[in-house]
Amino acid sequence: MKEKKLRRIAEYIVEMVKQDNQKSEPPKPKRYFPSKETSQIEYCEIDENNSKKFVKFINNLVKQKINLKIDINENYIIVNCENPSKSNGARAASYNNTIFEIRIDELGFRFCRESGSFYNFSDKTMLEKLRNILTKKNQELSNQYLEESIDELTVKLNLSRENNLDEILS
Predict the structure, then answer these.
(1) Full-model pTM
(2) Which of 49, 111, 154, 160 has the fewest CB atoms within 10 Å, measured from its CB?
(3) Average pLDDT per 10 consecutive residues for the chain, totaling 170 residues
């Protein structure tokens, strides 16, 4: 009888812990891909004023020195920014640290802030308007990352002394 009561108590505790964990987990952000139930993403129309504001926002964004990440594909561009105060130094993006994420494709763009909900706006010209700007910024960020990585690895692997001797001798 004691074993039955202990087993029931243990099961009850496990169930309560599971319920508590489910309540304390932050909701996962909604993604911009269509769900399995629907094959279409619903876009709302954007007025010309907000479209211009968005282009200006991106232009101002690429001029700033912030923790910006850009993923360029043939059919879409994804831009996101991590909050440096919440970052743990990991290179991979984490939704807990993301301030915003934008996905621009041939149909329009999807915008998500920290809240985790995506809002879809129809603007078929947005990808072409921003492709050159974001490609240049991505090249700049990539070159900066490569340069910093080479410098850091040169120091970590003790290659700086050999490089200095090679430069002096050549």
Answers:
(1) 0.61
(2) 49
(3) 72 75 52 48 86 92 86 91 60 61 91 81 91 92 89 79 64
